[in-house]
Amino acid sequence: MPLPRWMSRSALFGAALLGAVALTACGGTTSTPTGSAGSTTTAPSSTAPGPATTPGAGAPLTVPAAAATDLCNMLRPELSNFRVQGPTLGRIGLNALVHEWALRNGGINGQVLADKAVVDRTLTGACPDVHQQAIEALGLPNLAAGIAF
Fold first, then answer.
1. Is the Cβ–Cβ distance between 73 and 58 less than 8 Å?
2. φ/ψ (deg, to 5) at 134
3. How far apart are CA 88 and CA 142, in angstroms?
4. What pTM was computed for the model?
5. How far is CA 130 from the centre of its chain?
6. Is 13 left (phi over 0), alpha (psi -120 to 50) or beta?
7. How far apart are the first and last CA of the chain?
8. Contacts of 28 (CB under 8 A, 6+ apart)
9. 9-13, 26-30, 125-129: range with highest mean pLDDT
10. How far is the C-alpha of 76 from the C-alpha of 99, rounded, in Å?
11. Which residues pair with 53 in a beta bridge?
């Protein structure tokens, strides 16, 4: 069955992403055999370090060029959806997109939330036209203002 016109892929993805983020935010454990039958040691699961780095406390998050290009490539096709959906639904799509991007680029969601301006800095440097169009479509002073969770 086709989706209603007001529903976009980004809005649906946002709902799915929220569920995934909630599940991954809790962390996980893996069981590692200790060598004796019937006993295991539980160790926290680890993830690969993200490409973005925070040099020190209070320092802004830095994003590599490949991750910046990825954000531009993710945001560009959503601009028309933002215009059609309007600021309210568009901001939900923006949040979903930013969280997907952060997850795909090292799981840096928490760091992005702590430094929301990283989205503006990244897009201004990598694709200022896309950045400006997103701000206009969403009716925001900057994209950081539209990142809520």
1. no
2. -65, -45
3. 15
4. 0.63
5. 17
6. alpha
7. 31
8. 44, 45
9. 125-129
10. 16
11. 62
* 3 state SS for the chain: CCCCCCCCHHHHHHHHHHHHHHHHHCCCEEEEECCCCCCEEEEECCCCCCCCECCCCCCCCECCHHHHHHHHHHHHHHHHHHHHHHHHHHHHHHHHHHHHHHHHCCCCHHHHHHCCHHHHHHHHHHCHHHHHHHHHHHCCCCHHHHCCC
Q: How confident is the model at residue 25 (pLDDT cuts 50, 70, 90)?
A: very low
CA 140, distance to chain mean position in Å, is 18
pLDDT of residue 47: 34
| Distance of alpha carbon 133 from alpha carbon 81, whole angstroms | 12
CA nearest 94: which of 135, 124, 126? 135
* Structure token pair of residue 61: 């998050």
- The amino acid at residue 84 is V
pLDDT of residue 80: 97
Residue bearing tokens 């694709």 = 127
